[in-house]
């Protein structure tokens, strides 16, 4: 359903379990960045009323998720750590060339966002099924559906604002590129990397 070309190695969960505090901190910042992406799309493309409406709702939802993750951190007696570099996203963003028309830039941003949400959904599913922490297992199961909805929403908007054939071709190319990236990632307790 997600279209990912390379699934996460299930052993990634073993890495996560050795440092729950680290994965929760990374997850919290992922939610914050997702809200920030939604806000940047509103700022960058205010004339796209349907997009603005959906991104407003998304920013609220992602900050709600941030708050839920932050509560998990506090409940365990920890504090939110400092933001880490997201190697996955930094490498992913190198795929599309810089420049181009405003509409091309929008489509690229939407495709990146769709892929990040798809990978998050896949990781949440894996955590929900494999982690030996019943509370976190249930938590990640509850978040899985919303990530899948975000993925399909971003892909839908990319197809709406770009040429469908071109968008689908770019999407397949981006999926192939991401699969190559994932061969070298998944060895740290980060949500994507």
TrEMBL record:
InterPro entries: Ferritin-like (IPR012347), Ferritin-like_SF (IPR009078), tRNA-Hydrxlase_MiaE (IPR010386). Coiled coil: none annotated. It holds the Pfam family MiaE. PANTHER family: TRNA 2-(METHYLSULFANYL)-N(6)-ISOPENTENYLADENOSINE(37) HYDROXYLASE, TRNA-(MS[2]IO[6]A)-HYDROXYLASE. This is tRNA-(Ms[2]io[6]A)-hydroxylase. It comes from Flagellimonas spongiicola.
